Amino acid sequence: MEMTDKVYIAVPPEVVYNGLNDPEILKLAMPGCEEFIKNSDTDMTMKIKSKVGPIKANFNFKVTLSDLNPPSGYTIYGAGQGGTAGFAKGGATVKLEPEGEGTMMHYTVNADIGGKLAQLGSRLIDSTARKMAGEFFSNFGEIVCGTPESGPAEILPLETEKTRTSWTIWIGVAAIAVAAAVAFMLMSRA
Amino acid sequence: MTNPKNRPIPASRQREGADQSFKWIGKSMKRVEDPKLLVGKGVYIDDVSLPNMLHAVALRSPYAHALIKSIDTKDALALKGVVSIMTGEDVAKSTGVLPTFSNPPVEQRCVAVDRVRHVGEPVVLVVAESRYIAEDALELIYVEYEELPVVNDLVEAVHATGDAVLHPYLGDTNVASHRNFSFGPVDEDFNNADVIIKRNLRWPRSGAQPMETCGAVASYDCGQEKFTIHVNFSMYNYVGWLLADTLGVPANKLNIVPVLAGGSFGSKLFLHKVPIIAATLARECGQPVKYIEDRIDNITACDAHGSDRVYTCELALDENRKMTSLRCEVIDDYGAYFQFGLGTHGNALSQITGPYRLGSVELDVTAVFTNKCQQGAIRGFGAEVSNYVMERMVDAACSELGMDPIEFRLANYIQPDEFPYYIPTGNLYDSGNYPAVLNKAIELLDYDGWRKKQEEARKEGRYIGIGLAACQERSVFSATEFWMLNKDPGFSLTSTPESVTVKIDQLGCAVITLYAPFWGTSPETMATMILAEQLTINPKDIAVIYADTDHGLPSAGPGGSRYTAMIAGALVSASGTLKTKLLKVAALMLEASPDDMELRDGKVGVKGSPEREKTFAEVAMQSHLFRLSLPDDPEFDSGLTVSSTYDHPLTTPPSEDRSDLGIFYPIMGHMCHMPVVEVDVETGQVKFLDYVAVHDCGTVVNPMTLDGHVRGGTVHGVGTALYEEYQYDDQGQILTASYADYLIPTASEAPPEIRVGHVETPSPFTEFGIKGGGEGGRMGAPPAIASAIEDALRPLGVKADFLPLTPARLRGLIRESQNLEE
Amino acid sequence: MSKECITLVVNGKTYEEEVEPRELLSDVLRHKLGLTGTHVGCEHGVCGSCTVFINGKSARTCLAFAAQCDGFEITTIEGLGTVNEMHPVQQAFWDKHGLQCGFCTPGMMIAAIDLLNENPNPDREDIVEAVSGNLCRCTGYQTIIEAIEQAAEHMRKERV
């Protein structure tokens, strides 16, 4: 699966970038994340418990960051085994550009899933990934900005400036992590 | 008789003609199989339970193509209730490669060793006290894979090399076989052609998907060093002994026990992986082991996916608009293994020119390996595909030349006085009357009425179409089709027998022993009706049982629409011998001459003397237990049981160079399907407004059960044409692994009424003139439905060459043609 | 996994069984109670082969946990009739050739009886809809529909 999108986030790129590199923040924000270990600046291990339709999966992910270019962006790649549920792997390229007081984040995601996840969950993965990412953004936003916001987070496609509302800040912040969440969950079907 | 090749027609061995007045044959007798099934007492494989039985599951590969680097099972072994775990390497210590008809053999093991070649291939086996615990254990097994490049596109597969090659020991290519077969003056016919029609056609991978999966319950007696395997495998009395070889035991140390099968449609013809897994585990654990596929296991790894072909075809016509030659170039995606070799193309060559008088045909076939489940035998075994090809080309010719599809076919048909008829490939069509079948279909449908309705509907902006497909249904295959297209034949078997044993017991009742199983066809009813006919015994006094391989006689079993014709042959033989003895013993009892005796209504009596008769019970009792009352002649030895084996009544070997494939599938049925559909151009939905199917299966033994196959096969064909496809993504992940995605027609998708008509052109070669009809409607429905959709969308110029014609695909085609218009 | 003691009343007979909470009703009926007439075709609720009556309503046993059915009344194909005294639906399926391999048949007949319990005089469309949740690969459905029509007529006559 391939997806390219961009989102506006109303905090400066440095804040976004640092938040994304903080394993404590990411572990708290990511739904079902039981472990997030930063082995080095570029290598991480992640254990996530998730459910896609009828399939429950305990994933062990090896995550690698490359092309590190703070605060402008990086490339992330992850591959995870989910036991009998199958596997997921994917990568994303993230670019952060300052825009006004905030950041425009561009991302391109590539993902493959295999095994039972692909066999049984392919039609559910999209909506499940969105739901998980939405939860992530909500959590991430709360943690990074320190102010809880009400309302469910939603991954939105590119929004025009006229329709921007305050809660898109948190969605926008969280959208960076869509690169990570989506890369592991979305199906590789064009 | 026209004989294009001037080849002699072999003599017929028919003993019972079609032209008789029958008491039972031809009646729609209720099935004798049904009562036990209706009250839930049929024993299918998962109903079999043995004492101390354990349960097995397989850990299956999530990767389409990968090396197996390591397997860690220690956590799984420690789980309470787990009895044994075997990796592919463990299994290979005691169990060899699976049997295959391909030559050179393509190696397949029941559990992958070193490398997995498709998603779903077994990698580790777990045996536990319950299925639940076994599945828990799967979570605790860690397998490390090293991914290899995935090949999932058949055109790409032709060019793949290096790490993308699935079977490197066969060469640095994924081409399993490339053969070119030419019959008759193809080049000449094309050079002289007035018109050449070209089309690209696509037949998608779909499958049998019976409601019951495959399974086995195996036990190993270490005292006798003998295996017993209960399994829903139909060719068990034909090639079951091959499993003994894989298990490393002599064939007389393997007993295969049949069970009822919940459908097969070919997919249970040649079960090897499933029984071998169960048997290997039983030997390892010292207890019986049950191994049943669940539905996902079956869809991903049943070893029975259907033909998956891309065709480039050319049809040559002369200046009289007569078809003279057909050229087909086809790539067929066989998946990861090659168990039947090019058998599905050999099968098609039995009737590749359809009911038409083409003089030459060329088939260029490239079989490729890809990282998908392998192909197996599916209802039609490749000939349903060539039926589709021929009829699509005929429709294309009619469309491009502005010819009426009915007139064109009538003009090109082999005529009723030309049979037996040799087609260019060397196969023989035994009998037929194709115009009669077509005309009957037209009449039943009220074709002219529907054409009028179509015209009116078009004015209203509705898209109604009338389809037509005239297709052959060959029956009674010969073993030569399994190997004759291999470059080197390999095991070139030539027997395709069927056996039966008939016992008249001490009380005058009959027990028929069959050597092939029930899988939804009606073997018990067929055997009962035919024996009743031959011996005048009442069906109520006939019981039918099935024998295991220990008691087995050579029997290829159901498949290729052969069973009824073959069991009839065996029963005619057996009942003939029994009848002779009955007459002789009764003659002695009645002090008459055997020539004056007859069988009548379950009695043996003197012709013309109604009071001088003995019941079967009396004669049987005499035969069984009163030896000293009978002459001192071996023919009166105690008992009244006869076993007979009936071989293929009409088959000849192929020539060395394969320019003549011999007679290998001559009992030739025929069908004409005419569906009427309405296509909703907004949604792409196809609705059936009417459906007529006229079948010629020679002499019909039981019209009710035959119609069942016609209708069931037609609805299966609806699935093939409109809904079913095993889909894989570019990483070889199967996306249609459950019935949520693999769409089998429900009652709502089936045509509300399929009106069946019969024409009977009896075979001169089989007993009673019976021809097979089991593959039924699936042989003709897909092209008929494609034809109907094309007819409906003719104003838009949509061509229906790529199946399945799902709503999405039809919408795409409609949109495309609408854009072209604009 | 710890086991629970449950009671199932199947075809009028009371059974007491120890089951794990995750054990499917289909497995308990087939392998613990020996009632193998109910068949498992897909284990994900689509094919309908596993259908029985639970407290008078048709339900998929492959999607029910036995423990959920503690105390419930269940009717399986074994409770419909015998070879000598068939339920009108069983008889009609036999008369009309409404089965070939017999695997989908138990669930199909339960679905038919469920319909006729609700609607003793269904038209063809009602019947098609009622059995559209049961897959049959053999018959093409037409003779199943005809069988249900015959059974309906017979059962209406019996009521009168």
Written overview of the protein:
The complex is a heterotrimer of chains A (190), B (822) and C (160). Chain A is α+β, with helices and mostly antiparallel strands and 190 residues long. Chain A is built from four helices and seven strands. The C terminus of chain A is likely disordered. Chain B has three domains: 352 residues, Aldehyde Oxidoreductase, domain 4, CATH 3.30.365; 183 residues, Aldehyde Oxidoreductase, domain 3, CATH 3.90.1170; 150 residues, Aldehyde oxidase/xanthine dehydrogenase, molybdopterin binding domain (Aldehyde Oxidoreductase, domain 4). Chain C contains five helices and five strands, in the order ββαβββαααα. By secondary structure, chain C is an alpha+beta fold. The chains are: A alpha+beta (190), B alpha+beta (822), C alpha+beta (160). Chains B and C meet through α1 and α19 of B and α1, α2, α3, α4 and α5 of C.
Q: Specify the CATH class of chain A.
A: Alpha Beta
Describe the largest sheet of chain A: 7 strands, antiparallel
CATH topology of chain A: Alpha-D-Glucose-1,6-Bisphosphate, Chain A, domain 4
* Lateral strand order in the biggest sheet of chain C: 2-1-5-3-4
- Give the overall shape of chain C, derived from the CA principal axes: globular
Uncertain residue segments of chain A: 147-176, 183-190
Strands of chain C, total number: 5
Number of domains of chain A: 1
Side by side, the strands of the main sheet of chain A go 1-7-6-5-4-3-2
In the CATH hierarchy, what is the superfamily of chain A? START domain
CATH class bucket of the largest domain in chain C: Alpha Beta
Give the proportion of residues in helices of chain C.
25-40%
Helix proportion of chain A: 25-40%
Q: What percentage of the residues of chain A does DSSP assign to strands (E)?
A: 35-45%
Indicate the structural class of chain A: alpha+beta
Query: How many runs of DSSP E, i.e. beta strands of chain A?
Result: 7
Which residue ranges of chain C are poorly predicted, with pLDDT under 50 across at least 5 consecutive positions?
Answer: none
Structural domain tally of chain C:
2
Question: Would you tell me the structural class of the helices and strands of chain C?
Answer: alpha+beta
Cα distance, first to last residue of chain A? 6 Å
CATH topology of the largest domain in chain C: Ubiquitin-like (UB roll)
